[in-house]
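dumping this here before i forget
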Amino acid sequence: MALKITHECINCDVCEPVCPNHAISQGVEIYEIDPDLCTECVGHFDKPQCQLICPVSCIPLDPEHEETPAQLLDKYRRLIRL
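structure:
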């Protein structure tokens, strides 16, 4: 399942550069995660890097974009071929 950034975000800018899929970008008010690009770092790291670095823990799983580990790995494989 993709991740999302909640309104607790303080716009600290630390999550965007650690995302290996470039899924995080500055939105109108806070940073946002593109669910089509987010693989929860599957294929790159054991744990989502944005969650590890976020100082306010505002990056939970997005229940609107549920995916299995196999689906996340397939998405990763498609993304690296681009």
